[in-house]
Amino acid sequence: MSESRGISRIKGFADLFPPESDAFTRMEACGRDIFTRYGFAELRTPLLEFTGLFQRSIGAETDVVQKEMYTFPDRKGRSVTLRPEATAGVMRACIEAGLADGRGGPQRFFTMGPMFRYERPQKGRMRQFHQINCECLGTESPFADAELIAMLWRFLAALGIRGLTLKLNSLGCATCRPAYMEALRRYLAGVDQNALCEDCRRRAGSNPLRVLDCKHEGCRRLTEGAPRLIDHNCPDCKRHFDTVLELLAQQGISAEIDHRLVRGLDYYCRTTFEVVSGHIGAQTAVAGGGRYDGLTAQLGGPDAPGVGFACGMERLALLLPEVAPARPDCFLVAPDEAGRVQTFALAEALRKLGLACELEYAGGSFKSLMRKAARSSARYCCIIGPDEAAEGRVTLRDMENGEQATLPQAEAPARLADLCAKTPSSPNHNG
Question: Is 47 helix (H, G, I), strand (E, B) or coil?
Answer without folding.
Answer: coil
